[in-house]
Design brief:
- By secondary structure, the protein is α+β, with helices and mostly antiparallel strands.
- Among the domains are: 331-429, Aminohydrolase, N-terminal nucleophile (Ntn) domain, beta-sheet knob region (Penicillin G acylase, beta-roll domain, Roll), CATH 2.30.120.10; 585-627 and 635-747, no CATH class.
- It is built from 31 helices and 28 strands.
- It has an 11-stranded mixed β-sheet with strand order 1-28-2-3-6-7-8-9-16-17-21, with helices on both faces. Strands 4, 5, 22, 25, 26 and 27 form a 6-stranded antiparallel β-sheet that branches.
- A hairpin with a 5-residue loop joins strand 10 and strand 11 (346-350).
- Helix 1 (2-18) runs antiparallel to helix 31 (888-900).
- The radius of gyration is 28 Å and the shape is globular.
- The protein starts with a helix and ends with a helix.
Length: 901
């Protein structure tokens, strides 16, 4: 049809225009200050191997590779982290830019760089090396730009020319952005407060509970009474770290390690598969790095984050490591009482005293519009984030104002002079990040102790779980992310805290030495899947209660133990099968609920018509015997997905309908626009407003399936009662599910759950998903609760939402040269038209994880391209002239197609 022809024409035009932007991977090149024996080899997949006798040259080569392949991604990341997206997208990005200017990551990055430079100037040898790492990476990026024939088409479409040279602060601000995105805690406290105050505690808590007392079958990441825990506790300052204990102790990515006792090679195997939004370009950049200097050299391989050198998931010659999000509670929202003084300054109440508010102004440049100058405020807790431009924050702030108004006796000064604002306290916003030091140290770690020290550097401003294995036969686990020690009772941080009283202040941070870690646990394996890290009966420090339900961890443990029982020992193929497991434990439990309340047709309420009863009966029968595996060919998986989604809709619709009959509840709900649809969005983890551009986690969706099961285990669930009881609610849900299921032309889970790997500019060009910059849809198995995680778009929108396995990495420590495996979803090069643009998609989608070719001798054997750097000749390559001639006709054709569209 005409639409398909237009989309095809657009893609052809993009490729034609980009043909001059494709990087040159072959030849001899000149680069100042780079060792003459430096080279970049690329294999048939496009993966670069950077080799040099000189350490700083290796980091330079890393910058060259990323500058060649990911220049638009680099630029977009620095613009986002600096609050400058309006310069690309215009006024529609103003809310995002305001938010980023409020939290001021760019300023924090400038402070990080200043601290590194000052330490280097003072003679700190490690600071000198870290400074060199960041500087030479930036030089490498800029070398790639200056030796390119043409900027990629994205720069031309958005008017982002000329390219501003990459700086060290750019790298550190991007690192700050990723750390903030992975931080966790502040959004759920705002939403929880609103839900509880509008609906009441008893009604709201059925959706917001997190205690996992029902889950004794879920493994802790660090098992009770582990020897390492006991050793750490003997050294820890338990009293200051615990905080008050008024509250009863409550209990997205995978990494697991098995010990040599369980492996066929008699050495540990580590498997890591981080779950992130899968799009074009990929979050990860595959690379191999070799510094061949005999005394201080290193070799490391895996994936780095675009914008920084170093390996975030991978291995060196001594150990391997994988990463998941820690989910410890590292963020809080404080409700601040602020008043404006006659001179234009501000004060806020803290511990009975009025203190000056830090005030700064910033000018935001807006494409096609006049610039805007805004004022930003900050208390000692953190930046004020409640501004009128951010609608959703305002909704929850307005409700908080009502709550605080009730406490007027605590006010000092006239109430009308005081405004309620929200400030954000976050570990990730602490000054002077040591993250770059950790990145540098991990490359050279030679033992668990050295690895832990390296992760300790990251711990100041990032919250992550690290799995570990080494060539000496050890496996381990380390948590990074220093958790705030709060004055308030445990659990109070689940709601916004009082900023004015002094009773909810931080009294410090739990140091890295006291965070959980484990070395060679007696059970012989380590599992981390964003679930509870420790049992508070054994570990006395408080990390929060917000981790995800451990369904994936339990599935991984089940698969490990069953494989060991069957085969005695496991190899990398077995570990890959575990990574690819589509076993959903909540699916099995949900079908058991249906079996209990709707065992057959006779149990269906008579209020349903004969035709409706037939449809419900089909649902009952089709789900009987479902093994809980959401495989590509499964039609039971499809019906289960619809049945669970429609059950949640049935419960929220019935419960909210009844709640809104109360005038007081209705009045409160209208102020924050809370209805059944809004509640559904909260339950599937939609972040608050502009935060969805950055925050990749929200707490409620991680507990949705558990809380639904809890309701059916209670005799008096409000939500079930308002839906006509358990039998009626399940019957309604099955009826709606079967009707939708029957309407599908293809009913297999892989067809329903397919994903298009999208590039943001495809939508900007008004092209359909899967065209232009995108890759066509790929069939995917699993869901959010399976080890092979691929999340649904919505409750009953079962297509894939973009969150998926963003990389698979497996390392058998018996032979790192030949027994490491690695895959990312798309390609290395993000320039449309490159042979390495989406060349990995089908293998990734089919669960194929090839051998990682990283050793420099092997890289030479399979090399298809070689860039050699020579100091003796003049500068080679093409200098990029931003004012020179470009392929105007190609670009004009793209714009012409847009106008015709």
């Amino acid at each position: 049809d005409s639409s398909a022809m237009l989309s095809s024409a657009v893609k052809c035009a993009l490729k034609l225009f980009n043909s001059r932007a494709l990087p040159t991977y072959e030849g001899s090149f000149y680069a100042q200050d780079v060792h003459k024996d430096s080279e970049i080899l690329r294999d048939a997949d496009g993966t670069p191997t950077c080799i040099s006798p000189d350490e700083k040259s290796v980091f330079f080569l890393t910058g060259v590779c990323q500058g060649q392949d990911r220049l638009w991604q680099l630029h977009l990341s620095r613009m986002a982290s600096s609050g400058r997206l309006c310069q690309i997208a215009g006024e529609k990005a103003i809310a995002i830019d305001l938010f980023m200017r409020q939290i001021n990551l760019r300023k924090l990055a400038e402070g990080d760089w200043k601290a590194i430079c000052e330490a280097a100037l003072a003679g700190d040898p490690e600071a000198c090396k870290v400074k060199s790492m960041v500087t030479f990476y930036a030089k490498g990026v800029n070398w790639a730009v200056n030796n390119a024939k043409q900027l990629p088409v994205e720069f031309h479409l958005t008017g982002q020319r000329p390219f501003q040279l990459w700086t060290e602060v750019d790298s550190l601000s991007v690192l700050r952005l990723h750390a903030f995105a992975m931080g966790f805690g502040y959004q759920h406290s705002l939403v929880r407060q609103a839900l509880h105050d509008v609906l009441g505690d008893d009604i709201a808590k059925e959706w917001t509970m997190m205690s996992d007392k029902e889950q004794e079958d879920i493994p802790d990441t660090v098992p009770p009474n582990d020897s390492q825990i006991s050793e750490l506790l003997s050294k820890a300052d338990v009293k200051t770290a615990m905080g008050p204990e008024d509250r009863e102790r409550d209990q997205g990515s995978n990494v697991f390690c098995i010990s040599g006792k369980m492996s066929a090679s008699s050495m540990p195997i580590l498997a890591s598969d981080p779950h992130l939004s899968v799009r074009i370009p990929s979050f990860w950049y595959p690379i191999n790095m070799h510094c061949t200097e005999s005394k201080i050299g290193f070799s490391s391989a895996g994936a780095c984050v675009v914008g920084m050198p170093g390996i975030f998931i991978g291995h060196n010659t001594f150990c391997s490591w994988g990463v998941t999000l820690g989910y410890q509670d590292m963020e809080d929202v404080y409700i601040e009482k602020v008043k404006k003084l006659p001179n234009g300054e501000y004060e806020y109440l803290s511990g009975g005293k009025w203190l000056p508010v830090k005030k700064r102004t910033a000018t935001i440049k807006i494409k096609g519009k006049p610039s805007q100058t805004r004022t930003f405020l900050e208390t000692h807790h953190g930046p004020i984030v409640s501004y009128p431009s951010i609608d959703s924050f305002q909704r929850y702030k307005a409700h908080a104002s009502e709550i605080i108004a009730k406490a007027s006796e605590e006010m000092e000064g006239k109430e009308e002079d005081v405004k309620i604002m929200l400030s954000l306290a976050a570990t990730t916003l602490r000054p002077q990040s040591r993250g770059p030091f950790g990145i540098y140290r991990v490359l050279r770690a030679r033992s668990f102790k050295e690895f832990d020290v390296a992760i300790g550097e990251i711990s100041r401003t990032a919250g992550l779980n690290f799995g570990y294995a080494d060539i000496d036969g050890h496996i381990g686990y380390v948590l990074a992310g220093e958790v705030p020690i709060r004055k308030c009772p445990r659990g109070k941080e689940l709601y916004p805290l009082k900023g004015w009283s002094g009773e909810d202040e931080y009294i410090g941070f739990l140091p890295h030495a006291n965070l959980p870690k484990s070395l060679d646990p007696s059970k012989g394996y380590v599992i981390s899947a964003n679930h509870k890290i420790v049992n508070y009966n054994d570990y006395k420090h408080y990390l929060g209660t917000c981790w995800k339900v451990g369904w994936r961890a339990a599935s991984i443990e089940k698969e490990i133990l069953e494989a060991v029982k069957e085969k005695k020992t496991l190899d990398s193929d077995d570990c890959l099968k575990i990574q690819l497991s589509n076993l959903s434990i909540p699916a099995i439990k949900f079908c058991a609920v249906i079996e209990k309340f709707l065992p057959d047709e006779k149990s269906i309420p008579e209020t349903f018509s004969e035709e409706e009863r037939k449809l419900i009966t089909f649902g009952i029968e089709h789900l009987k015997g479902f093994n809980g595996r959401l495989d590509l060919e499964s039609t039971q998986a499809t019906l289960y997905g619809f049945a669970h989604g429609y059950l949640v809709k049935t419960l929220t619709e019935g419960g909210m309908r009844k709640a809104l009959e109360n005038k007081e509840v209705s009045s409160k709900a209208s102020k924050i626009k809370l209805n059944s649809e809004a509640l559904e969005g909260i339950l599937i983890g939609e972040p608050i407003d502009v935060a969805k551009a950055f925050k990749i986690i929200m707490e409620f969706e991680g507990h949705l399936h558990l809380n639904v099961l809890r309701m059916f285990n209670r005799d008096n669930s409000y939500w079930i009662q308002q839906s006509g009881g358990p039998v009626n609610a399940l019957s309604k849900a099955l009826l709606r599910a079967v009707k939708t299921y029957n309407s599908l032309p293809q009913k297999e889970w892989g067809d329903v759950h397919a994903a298009a790997l999208e590039h943001k500019l495809t939508a900007a060009l008004k092209q359909p998903p899967g065209t232009a910059f995108d890759h066509p849809k790929v069939r995917l198995a699993g869901d959010m609760n399976t080890p092979n995680q691929n999340k649904n778009k919505g409750l009953t929108e079962l297509e894939h939402n973009g969150s998926s396995v963003s990389m698979r990495f497996i390392a058998d420590m018996s032979d790192l040269r030949n027994k490491c495996r690695f895959i990312t979803p798309v390609g290395v090069c993000a320039i449309v038209g490159s042979p390495f643009y989406t060349n990995r998609v089908q293998r990734w989608g089919n669960g194929i994880v090839p051998r990682m070719i990283w050793h420099q001798d092997d890289a030479r054997k399979v090399s298809k391209f070689q860039m050699k750097f020579d100091l003796t000749g003049p500068p080679n390559g093409f200098s990029l002239s931003f004012l020179g001639a470009v392929a105007v006709a190609g670009l004009a054709s793209v714009y012409a197609l847009r106008r015709r569209r």
